[in-house]
């Protein structure tokens, strides 16, 4: 049995059927991590000892019949911006380089209740700010498809770990595309759920009104299964929504007959790589052949999404990151004179360049005299973008487009030109602004051998339509993965 | 003749709400406690923690708003006020700027100058900060987050007050209203009510306001009155000598009787307020408001009118008793237990006020129960104890809320009504004091007083003085 090549659900079934033990699966993936980490660097922290201990505990509960869920015993990787009790949680920042939380995030607790074995914490762009995982204070993660390329970001460590078989699935967070874009670059499946579906309690906030936790995994079945586990109504998160339609696996149906799929023309204009365009349109054609009704439409307002997003996200971030001040936890500068000098030096030394850029941008747009012109205006545009999607969803069940304009760029190419990097988020950020669910899955490979991502966007609370469409497409597309893993 | 100046005053009053738990987490708001024991990830600003609004805070804020004739903002939000200081664990305070819960209210005050309304600009909800303690020995600062997240409302008045008397009347009015609502105990000394005074002066008749200053650190009504006088004079002196008043925040030192500048307007921070994305907007429907309105208590003015109609007690007593919700509650409950209103009022007005004053206590600190007071009155009425014993028992009751029946029984303080025993003692006293007896027979009426005292002493205070008097006259 090729353990590492299994999906999370198939491994869970094998564990349940006693074909493999939790310890065997955990040891196998830890050996893989040991072997590949030097090359890809997906993790900030690997908790080998803790993982083996959890493996034995989970096995006992499975044997005792206390854990019967589909993912009991399956090892998982957690993005390093989700608090894990007793386990280093850094947000890939020097300022939290020594931070050990006293509690676990709700999504992690939900996984643990379902018998997950936590392998460690994955690398990310510092405080989830970036699209390449290169802004991490703890080294860059490399794309397992080609280590000269970035894995995307900010959940680059999670996406790369899934692609490199250094875990069976992972959790990430998505504020402007941070799950969808790296899964696209790494050829795996990711879902950003409807805002409010997965509790944000314990997720170290970047842009609170946009952040959502979601799965990064090998296929659509895993995606739906993980979603059923992590989604919950959490009273500790005021923005958490009570939903009665969390039976995501019920949507794993190979049927898109009559499904109305809209293709926004605005998503296929200037800046889109021709190979990406071709692959995405081919995916639409496949769905059409399976009986979906596919048509083009004008979404409008797409060009306003980037300035709107960077205004709102940076504003919230500038405030969210104020608590990192060297007083209570985390990094504190060594030499200082007085309080303000301590704040200044701690934060200057503790934060990286991209984080500082967004804190400054955010502080600026909230400043008295600029608040109305920037922040309030951005909120108004956000409302208009939501309205444009509402109109689209009056006509379509699913909107289909690319995840990113290109496949994964080379290491070092993006950071030199932040504006260009920001433009790379153009197809993903509107979805966060509108609070919608968005699913990313591979739909081909370009000439360089890098995966291309397809994005399916649904109306609020309509993950099931995305899952159904994605599942049907996956059946038609067939297996996808790196050649060396097959 | 010099110029005549008018003082213009507006107040910002912070009131700590009497909720059991904090505004955004389940931690206790209890005063005291070892440092950082009433804390959790939320009120210490740990990464990943999120605030959840305590509904009781909302109910209290709305109740205060309705009682002060405010318009309730039925779609309101919390905003973040961003500033760096170690007592503020997130480095932003969750407060309200754009859509405060209450707006455009007014309360009526009465001073010697007559009645007038003071406008309320707004009332908003916010969280308190922690407390910094400087450790002189170690030369470092320590922070205690027990107070962090304790709910506050800030009541911002219009600049409608013109004198210290009006300010005190306004504060008394607020305090009384809020105490009646049970929303806070409003103790200035303990900081559960804090007032900042915004003051400016202008020539009488001027239309424009003068430049104002904000005065902080005012811990009593007396300090507030002194600070107002002091600041008025300081500003007038500046203007008279051709200088300008600078818009600044000043700290009042009540011991020195003067203030000093803390920070000027130029140093004013940009708080970069924006709606807190972690908290959803609050939508208050009409039913919610109606429910709060329905639960509003009988306020002081209404109580005073009713007392006048229902109870035969002096107006002055009514004023004192209704001046404290707690005292009024005790009064009504004791009367409800069957005691005569006049007698209950007497106990409150005389002995209770005396003991409160002696012990430097507030009416809110009264501990004895209406049941015990009613029992005491009943025993006195039945002449089971005489009035001096009753006072003695009351003192113990005031201190420990003892059951007077049990206490009198245990201590053997019951009045001796056995005439035989009393007659015997009186005879003994007469025999032992021939001089006084002689004085009495020679027309010195006062001598009988001495003999009564001697008898009471011999009876250890347990005799009915009236009966002793009568027996003495008879036997002499």
Structure characterization notes:
The complex is a heterodimer of chains A (486) and B (476). Chain A is an alpha/beta fold. Chain A is built from 15 helices and 11 strands. The longest helix of chain A has 24 residues, at 372-395. The model of chain A has no long low-confidence stretch (mean pLDDT 96). Chain B has 3 domains: 5-287, no CATH class; 298-411, no CATH class; 419-475, Orthogonal Bundle (Arc Repressor Mutant, subunit A). Chain B is built from 15 helices and 16 strands. Chain B starts with a strand and ends with a helix. The model of chain B has no long low-confidence stretch (mean pLDDT 92). At the A-B interface, helix 9 and helix 10 of A face loops of B.
Roughly what fraction of the amino acids of chain A lie in strands? Answer: 5-15%
Which topology of the domain at 3-257 and 437-485 in chain A does CATH recognise?
Amidase signature (AS) enzymes
Spatial gap, N to C terminus of chain B: 78 Å
Give Rg of chain B in angstroms.
29 Å
Low-confidence stretches of chain A: none
Write a short abstract of this structure.
Chain A is built from 15 helices and 11 strands. Chain A is α/β, with parallel strands linked by helices and 486 residues long.
């Amino acid at each position: 049995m090729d353990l590492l090549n299994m999906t999370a659900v198939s491994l869970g079934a094998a564990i349940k059927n006693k074909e493999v033990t939790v310890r065997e699966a955990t040891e196998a993936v830890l050996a893989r991590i040991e072997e590949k980490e030097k090359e890809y660097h997906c993790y900030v922290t690997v908790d080998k000892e803790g993982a083996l201990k959890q493996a034995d505990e989970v096995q006992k509960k499975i044997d005792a019949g206390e854990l019967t869920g589909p993912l009991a015993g399956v090892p998982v990787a957690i993005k390093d911006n989700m608090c894990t009790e007793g386990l280093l949680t850094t947000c890939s920042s020097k300022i939290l380089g020594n931070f050990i939380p006293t509690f676990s995030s709700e999504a992690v607790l939900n996984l643990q209740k379902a018998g997950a074995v936590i392998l460690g914490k994955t690398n990310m762009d510092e405080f989830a700010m970036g699209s390449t995982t290169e802004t991490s204070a703890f080294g860059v993660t490399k794309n397992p498809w080609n280590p000269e390329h970035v894995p995307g970001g900010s959940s680059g460590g999670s996406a790369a770990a899934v692609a490199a078989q250094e875990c069976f699935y992972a959790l990430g967070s998505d504020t402007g595309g941070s799950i969808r874009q790296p899964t696209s670059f790494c050829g795996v499946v990711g879902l950003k759920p409807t805002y409010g579906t997965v509790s944000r309690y314990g997720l170290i906030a970047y842009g609170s009104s946009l952040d959502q936790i979601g799965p990064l995994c090998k296929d659509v079945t895993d995606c739906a299964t993980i979603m059923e586990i992590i989604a919950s109504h959490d009273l500790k998160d005021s923005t958490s929504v009570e939903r009665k339609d969390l039976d995501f696996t019920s949507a794993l149906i190979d049927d898109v007959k009559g499904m109305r799929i809209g293709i926004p023309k605005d998503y296929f204009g200037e800046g889109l790589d021709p190979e990406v365009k071709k692959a995405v349109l081919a995916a639409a054609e496949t769905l059409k052949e399976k009986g979906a009704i596919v048509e083009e439409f004008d979404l409008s307002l797409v060009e306003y999404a980037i300035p709107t997003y960077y205004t709102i996200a940076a504003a919230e971030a500038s405030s969210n990151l104020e608590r990192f001040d060297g007083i209570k936890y985390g990094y504190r500068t060594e030499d200082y004179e007085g309080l303000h000098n301590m704040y200044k030096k701690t934060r200057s030394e503790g934060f990286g360049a991209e984080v500082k850029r967004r804190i400054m941008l955010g502080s600026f747009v909230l400043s008295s005299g600029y608040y109305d012109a920037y922040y309030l205006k951005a909120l108004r545009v956000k409302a208009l973008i939501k309205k444009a999607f509402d109109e689209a969803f009056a006509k379509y069940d699913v909107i289909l487009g690319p995840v990113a304009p290109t496949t994964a760029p080379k290491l070092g190419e993006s950071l030199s030109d932040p504006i260009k990097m920001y433009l790379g988020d153009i197809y993903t950020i509107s979805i966060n602004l509108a609070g919608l669910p968005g699913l990313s899955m591979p739909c081909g490979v370009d000439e360089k051998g890098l995966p291309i991502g397809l994005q399916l966007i649904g109306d609020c609370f309509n993950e099931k339509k995305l899952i159904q469409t994605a599942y049907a497409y996956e059946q038609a597309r067939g297996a996808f993965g790196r050649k060396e893993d097959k | 003749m010099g110029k005549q100046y008018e003082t213009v005053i507006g107040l910002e009053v912070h009131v700590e709400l009497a909720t059991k738990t904090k505004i955004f987490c389940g931690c206790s708001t209890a005063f005291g406690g070892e440092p950082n024991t009433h804390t959790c990830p939320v009120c210490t600003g740990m990464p990943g923690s999120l605030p959840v609004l305590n509904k009781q805070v909302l109910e209290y804020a709305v109740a205060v708003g309705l009682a002060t004739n405010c318009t309730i903002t039925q779609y309101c939000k919390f905003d973040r006020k961003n500033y760096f200081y170690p007592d503020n664990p997130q480095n932003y305070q969750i407060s309200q700027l754009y859509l405060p819960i209450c707006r455009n209210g007014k309360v009526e005050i009465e001073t010697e100058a007559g009645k007038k309304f003071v406008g309320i600009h707004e009332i908003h909800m916010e969280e308190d900060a922690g407390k910094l303690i400087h450790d002189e020995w170690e030369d470092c600062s320590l922070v205690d987050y027990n107070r962090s997240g304790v709910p506050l409302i800030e009541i911002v008045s219009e600049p409608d007050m013109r004198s210290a008397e009006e300010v005190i009347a306004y504060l008394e009015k607020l305090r009384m209203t809020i105490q009646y609502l049970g929303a806070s105990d409003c103790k200035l000394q303990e900081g559960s009510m804090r007032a900042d005074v915004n003051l400016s002066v202008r020539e009488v008749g001027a239309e424009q306001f003068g430049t104002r200053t904000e005065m902080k650190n005012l811990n009593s009504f007396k300090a507030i009155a002194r600070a107002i006088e002091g600041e008025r004079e300081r500003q007038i002196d500046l203007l008279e000598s051709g200088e300008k008043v600078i818009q600044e925040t000043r700290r009042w030192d009540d011991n020195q009787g003067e203030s000093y500048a803390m920070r000027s307007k130029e140093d004013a921070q940009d708080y970069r307020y924006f709606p807190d994305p972690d908290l959803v907007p609050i939508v208050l429907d009409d039913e919610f408001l109606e429910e709060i309105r329905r639960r509003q208590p009988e306020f002081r003015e209404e109580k005073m009118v009713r007392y006048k109609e229902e109870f035969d007690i002096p107006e002055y007593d009514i004023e004192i008793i209704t001046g404290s919700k707690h005292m009024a509650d005790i009064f009504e409950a004791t009367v409800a237990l069957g005691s005569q209103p006049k007698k209950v009022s007497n106990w409150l007005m005389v002995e209770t006020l005396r003991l409160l004053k002696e012990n430097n206590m507030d009416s809110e600190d009264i501990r004895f129960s209406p049941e015990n007071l009613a029992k005491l009155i009943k025993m006195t009425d039945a002449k089971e104890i005489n009035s001096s014993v009753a006072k003695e028992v009351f003192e113990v009751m005031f201190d420990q809320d003892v059951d007077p029946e049990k206490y009198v029984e245990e201590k053997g303080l019951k009045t001796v009504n056995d005439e035989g025993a009393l007659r015997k003692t009186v005879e003994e006293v007469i025999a032992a004091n021939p001089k006084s007896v002689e004085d009495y027979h020679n027309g010195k009426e006062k001598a009988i007083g001495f003999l009564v005292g001697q008898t009471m002493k011999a009876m250890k205070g347990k005799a009915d003085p009236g009966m002793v008097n009568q027996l003495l006259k008879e036997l002499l």
